[in-house]
Design brief:
The chain is built from 41 helices and no strands. With 731 residues, the chain is mainly α. Helix 6 (113-121) packs antiparallel against helix 8. The longest helix has 27 residues, at 68-94. The radius of gyration is 35 Å and the shape is elongated.
């Protein structure tokens, strides 16, 4: 049986289980098991089938059983688990992927978790003894390498073990209670459990992760929270078959702690799905802008060096810096980073090769200066470059994977170039960062739970997007992240104070359908306020559902009357619906609040013009022109309304001003042609129409414009039969 057939059979059985068609699922599973050599699975299925048949027989005989529902759920869960295990066992014989190798080895090799734990617990004592011996670097390095090999083997053993036995589950608890195990090593165990769960659901591992979420070490509990959330999202149906999981989750959230933590991580995982957009922005906008302005910055530095007074900065340099746009790009990059955005993906994407990242467990290795692959960089140094490097690596801005990449890059540089690079990094700002107080603040920042969890999410994202075997694994970052809708988490995440944070995130990122769905849900729960209706209206407006947007805005207007933002958006929606009378009413309300606002004046004038109230429109356009003597919008409005009220000389005067401006449009040339024609200047009209054709891009667009204005021209004295002639003259 090939892999495709195995997966098709598996999918069919799972569909039956989801549809609560247990008997059919067991029948198909029995057929699938005929090619499986694992007799343990045969026995488990046979026992489950027998027990289920008895339950059906008792029901048929009318025997009441208060535990029937629980038993049925248990049979569903067991059948699903057997199906998972049979699929993986059969794939071991047909596939040669990384996980199949680990899984096959796990099935045929006895692994004692307690033995691994003992070896890891003695590491720090061994290191302490080894460090007492002078000139013992080689032994220290060998000890560290043996420790790393132990971590690697344990990681692979846990990852490849698709189902813990009751004994293994009990032994695994010792990892969480140990006071001798390094947090770094326990972090790797958490990641191994997470990766195992991404391949196959195992209730014992899932409960272990839930317990790890409350570990005293922040680096451990943050990894566990992320692993738990991804697991529950991967198996929304299967996890519901284990009532003990639901009850343990509810118990852990007794004071609301778990819900708040999972909600925060939900936001960070949602942010991670923006990485491709951020990566594109970094590559196409921010980094090119910074490179383009390097010469300008160098010029500024040269100027400073040649100035007699070192502190006498030329103010023109600052203006040049601002005008270049580089300052805005740097500020934007800093803001994205502070929000938790992954701005270094593109920078480090090409630095994930080599033997270190070839070993998949290393993608999850917390950064450790003692790691044999980087320890040489942190040995005592007279030049002090390792101090500088330490400051950079402890800043909290790089994820663990990128810290290793940075170290490997530094190690490959010749010593002279490395010292030069670090010397350049040792600017006044960095020296200030190395101040005791600043260093303390940076350390505190790096140890914040939200920073640690964000870095780990970046590590996971790199693994699933960049590792050479990534196509062998299901990428959880491709899934929809609507954790609040997971049935098992609804009780702790489906709360107004948590939902609003998710809704506002989608709103900020312009995911308007997702934001709208959540705002509607909050509205249905009567958690309403003016801001909520404003945002609901804005989402609907962006989706061009103007009537519904108006309804939401009017509710906001009731709760917060005379709010300028709401009034203007009501006016905009009415204008988009071509209800210019209502639009005018709201724009005039806005005018009462901001009588000198040019945009409001323009739209009032435009609404009057659309209602053919040209004299009233002219008053507003002239007011705009008075406020701003170079208002293109005002000139355009005055010119058109003057034309429509047969003030041709005034119209021509303003069109001539428009035609000399860089912001001239094809319609300006076109309308100016109308003015010249009704003034009996056909040559001028033809020339202006010709310019309009050139700017339109195609003659058909120009003809569409003429067709729309045909009645207007006739009203102003142009013979309809002359219109096609003028088109030919202008062409």
């Amino acid at each position: 049986m090939d892999g495709r057939t195995i997966n098709e059979q598996y999918t069919s059985i799972i569909a039956l289980l989801k549809g609560k068609r247990l008997k059919e699922a067991q029948t198909q599973l029995a057929a699938m098991l005929e090619t499986c050599s694992d007799w343990t699975m045969h026995n488990r299925l046979e026992q489950t089938q027998t027990a289920y048949r008895y339950m059906l027989q008792y029901m048929k005989e009318g025997i009441e059983d208060p535990e029937r529902s629980k038993l049925y759920t248990k049979f569903l869960a067991e059948t699903w688990t057997i199906t998972d295990q049979v699929r993986l066992t059969l794939l071991d014989e047909t596939a040669s992927g990384y996980y199949q190798t680990l899984h096959h080895k796990s099935r045929h090799t006895a692994v004692r978790l307690d033995e691994y734990l003992h070896i890891l617990e003695t590491f720090q004592d061994d290191m302490a003894v080894c460090q007492l011996i002078t000139d013992n670097n080689q032994n220290l390095n060998n000890l560290q390498k043996r420790h790393e090999e132990t971590n690697q083997k344990l990681f692979q053993a846990i990852w490849g073990n698709s189902e813990w036995t009751a004994e293994e589950s009990a032994l695994s608890q010792a990892f969480l209670s140990s006071n001798l195990l390094r947090p770094i090593d326990l972090c790797l165990v958490v990641s191994a459990v997470t990766m195992s769960l991404q391949t196959c659901f195992d209730i014992r591992k899932c409960l272990w992760l839930l317990e790890a979420c409350q570990h005293k070490e922040i680096v451990v509990n943050q990894r566990a929270l992320i692993g738990l959330l991804l697991t529950l999202n991967t198996y929304p149906d299967q996890c519901l078959l284990y009532p003990e999981l639901q009850s343990r989750i509810n118990l852990s959230d007794e004071n609301g702690w778990l819900g708040k933590e999972l909600n925060r991580i939900s936001l960070q995982l949602l942010q991670s799905q923006e990485t491709e957009k951020i990566d594109k922005k970094m590559r196409e906008e921010i980094i090119p802008e910074m490179i383009k302005n390097v010469s300008m910055i160098k010029g500024m530095k040269l100027g400073l060096e040649e100035t007699a007074d070192e502190n006498d900065r030329n103010p023109d340099w600052e203006n040049t810096f601002e005008k270049s746009g580089l300052e805005d790009k740097i500020r934007e990059m800093n803001e994205m980073q502070m929000e938790g955005a992954d701005i270094y993906m593109s920078t480090f994407a090409q630095l994930k090769s080599g033997s270190f990242f070839g070993q998949l467990s290393n993608w999850f290795y917390p950064f450790d200066p003692l790691h044999s692959s980087v320890s040489a960089l942190f040995s005592p140094s007279e030049t002090g470059e390792n101090t500088v490097l330490n400051v950079i690596l402890q800043s909290g801005f790089f994820c663990n994977s990128d810290k290793y990449s940075l170290c490997f890059t530094m190690a490959q540089l010749p010593l002279s170039q490395r010292n030069l690079m670090l010397h350049q990094l040792t600017s006044q700002e960095l020296n200030e960062m190395m101040d005791d107080e600043q260093a303390k603040m940076m350390k505190q920042y790096a140890e914040r739970p939200e920073v640690i969890s964000n870095q780990y999410i970046h590590d996971l994202y790199r693994f699933f997007k960049l590792n050479q075997r990534r196509r062998e694994f299901n990428d959880p970052f491709k899934d929809d992240f609507a954790f609040y809708d997971l049935p098992i988490l609804k009780g702790i995440l489906n709360k107004p104070e948590l939902l609003i944070t998710i809704a506002d995130f989608h709103f900020r990122k312009e995911h308007y359908p997702e934001a709208l769905a959540l705002y509607r849900r909050l509205e249905a729960d009567n958690k309403t306020h003016a801001d909520l209706f404003q945002k609901t209206g804005y989402c609907l407006q962006k989706d061009k559902k103007y009537a519904e947007a108006i309804e939401a805005y009017r509710k906001a207007d009731i709760l917060k009357p005379d709010h300028l933002w709401t009034i203007r958006h009501l006016a905009t929606c009415y204008r988009q619906m071509h209800n210019f009378g209502m639009a005018l009413e709201y724009y005039q309300k806005a005018e009462n609040i901001q009588p000198e606002n040019a945009n409001i004046l323009f739209f009032i004038g435009s609404c009057h013009a659309e209602l053919e109230e040209y004299k009233e429109a002219l008053q507003y356009f002239f007011k705009m022109d008075f406020i701003d003597s170079h208002s293109i919008k005002a000139w355009r409005g005055i010119a058109w309304c003057s034309f429509m009220t047969e003030k041709y000389e005034q119209a021509d005067k303003y069109y001539q001003k428009l035609l000399q401006d860089k912001q001239v449009l094809a319609t300006d040339w076109f309308n100016a042609g109308h003015v010249a024609w009704v003034q009996h200047k056909p040559n001028v009209a033809a020339e202006r129409y010709r310019k309009a054709i050139a700017m339109c891009g195609s003659k058909s667009d120009f003809l569409d414009l003429f067709d729309k204005d045909r009645d207007i021209l006739v009203r102003h004295g142009i013979h309809e039969k002359d219109i096609p002639l003028m088109v030919d003259i202008a062409s």
